[in-house]
Specification:
five-stranded antiparallel beta sheet; mainly beta; Jelly Rolls; Immunoglobulin-like; globular
Length: 304
């Protein structure tokens, strides 16, 4: 007997087929590979570029070679603001790959970085995307707040500003080479933290590399980890990029694969709390350098 479909069955099959087709079409149109990152290298990029790992933008492509990131844009307009994820590192240069020799300016924000398109390429070869080159001081890595910092072979944990998790309205990592700091700490409710590994249970000393502009000193700050607190009074160094090492004291830490340390302000005295370039957790008695890093050594106030 031949199979005969009733009108209702035929209608249901038709609806089902259309639904499957539309779902497939929607998935195709929304596929990030069409508008952002793909494994197909765009025209005009240098030989040897590779897709940047952990890049999440669906519109902007990101490719890496050496210490450079190549951001390919689907469209550009003058004075538009391009927002990209934060990288772990110093920004040495931002420019167009071709079409103009004018430099671009990068502005760090708390959660991402902004690049204002103050100029746009005049001419591009057919099929080539407009491409911005961001040059860093090392291999490009997209910032990951879940990353856990590990100790060196001496058991010392170096927590750099570029690795800090910033929480709040204004505080941010500033990647300009002359800054390289967590700064913009104008809201005393903002704070910074790091995740790190404690290699073994024991006593550890905590050091901070801090800077503070003239007239902005004496804010009260607390460093906390494993329910232990160390208090400090910010020292005026005459310039926010005059950094001095200070030993804050000793804590007893238990071995841990994922610990957190925070720096918070309990009382802000002037316009900004301080700048922080590094925090160091060292086994008690470890040999280490306390040499400062100064933008303007002559501005450092005399020790009273």
């Amino acid at each position: 007997m031949p199979l005969v479909q009733s009108p209702s069955t035929t209608h249901m099959v038709s609806v089902l087929c259309r639904t499957v087709f539309l779902a497939s079409l929607l998935g195709f149109l929304c596929c990030p590979a069409l508008f952002g990152q793909t494994n197909e290298i765009p025209l005009g990029l240098p030989e040897g570029v590779k897709p940047l790992q952990n890049w999440k933008s669906e519109e902007i492509g990101a490719w890496v070679k050496g210490n450079q990131v190549f951001l390919t844009l689907p469209r550009v307009s003058k004075d538009a603001v391009l927002r990209v994820p934060r990288f772990v590192g110093l920004v040495k240069d931002v420019r167009w790959l071709s079409g103009t020799d004018e430099k671009l300016t990068l502005q760090p924000e708390p959660m991402n970085w902004s690049i204002r398109l103050s100029s746009i390429p005049k001419e591009l070869k057919k099929g080539e995307p407009a491409t911005i080159v961001v040059e860093l001081d090392g291999t490009p890595v997209v910032f990951d707040e879940k990353a856990v910092r590990k100790p060196d072979d001496k058991g010392m944990i170096q927590l750099q500003a570029r690795e800090a998790i910033v929480v709040g309205e204004n505080i941010r990592y500033e990647p300009q080479p002359h800054k390289n700091t967590v700064g913009y700490w104008s809201n005393e409710k903002d704070y910074m933290e790091w995740k790190f590994v404690v290699p073994k249970t024991g006593e550890y000393e905590i050091d901070i590399l801090q800077g503070c502009g003239k007239g902005h000193g004496n804010s009260a700050v607390v460093i906390e980890t494993q329910m232990q607190k160390l208090e400090m009074t910010v020292q005026d160094t005459g310039h926010f990029q005059n950094f001095i090492w200070r030993n804050l004291g000793t804590v007893n830490l238990k071995a841990s694969e994922n610990e957190t340390i925070t720096i918070k302000c309990t009382k802000k005295i002037a316009g900004a709390v301080m700048d922080v370039r590094s925090l160091r957790i060292a086994p008690k008695g470890s040999e280490r350098s306390f040499e400062g890093e100064f933008a303007d050594p002559a501005a450092i106030p005399p020790v009273m």
